[in-house]
Amino acid sequence: MIRVFLVVAFATIGILACKTKKNAGTTTDSPAVAKTGQKPAFNVDLLVNTWKHSREEDTQGARTYRPETYNFPPSRGPRTTYSFDKKGGMVKAYAGPTDGYVEEKGTYTIEGDKIIANLTNEKGKYTTSFQVISLADGVLKMKDLYGQ
Fold first, then answer.
1. Alpha-carbon distance 85 to 77, whole Å?
2. Is 2.40.128 the CATH classification of the domain at 31-146?
3. Could you say which of 21, 83, 118, 127 would form a disulfide bridge with 91 (CB–CB 3.0 to 4.6 Å)?
4. Residue 29 main-chain phi, psi, to 5 deg
5. By three-state DSSP, how is residue 69 classified?
């Protein structure tokens, strides 16, 4: 009887350990995922990248971003970029008054299909958010929900 109990106990521990290891690193394990009970509507692991605005591919309902390694056509000025890291940190970079990049650093959280960004610029801290329309095959499509 004790042997059966021990076998069942060790089997249960082994199964739980495998499930925990299998799920490690998935989208819900990211510190950026808000603890609201809403599952992310997209694969958060795919978001971790530096995304440059591909204005040539914008549609009426979404802005298009591609990884910074993409072969972009020539542009008149710097392209807006968003960099997202695994731990919930982010950087927004955009064209400044002299066509150089201006950076705003901060954090982000994910709630369903939304990215909530808390950034700091020369005026102080502010919050903005985006709706992720799609994220697949090296293309991120987002819609601004509100900004500064």
1. 25
2. yes
3. 83
4. -85, -10
5. coil
